[in-house]
Amino acid sequence: MVGLAIKRLEGETWRDCAARIARKNGLELEVMVAFDEAIKRGVPDDEAAWEACYEWDVCDLAP
User: Fold this and answer.
1) pTM, full prediction
2) Number of domains in the chain
3) Assigned domain for 22 exists
């Protein structure tokens, strides 16, 4: 079974991580809106980044 992942770079915030991953796919604005909406609902940063990237199908395949 293959999983999905997002990987944060050293010193990178989860928001910046989601933006970087989304940018590669031309979906930065969409993912940032989803991230910010999750944060407003009280979702922790790491989960908000995952949700936003998953929602827009930009997660990487986990090794």
Assistant:
1) 0.89
2) 1
3) yes
CB 32 within 8 A of CB 19: yes
Dist. CA 56–CA 12, nearest whole Å: 21
Q: 14-23 vs 45-55: helix axis angle to the nearest 10?
A: 20
**Is 33 inside any structural domain?**
yes
Distance CA 29, CA 22 (A): 8
27 vs 4: which has the higher pLDDT:
27
Tell me: the pLDDT tens digits for 18-63?
999 999 999 999 999 999 999 999 999 999 999 999 999 999 877 6
In this structure, which amino acid lies at residue 20?
Answer: R
Structure-block tokens of residue 63: 């090794």
54 within 8 A of 22, measured Cβ to Cβ: no
Domain membership of residue 37 (yes or no) is: yes
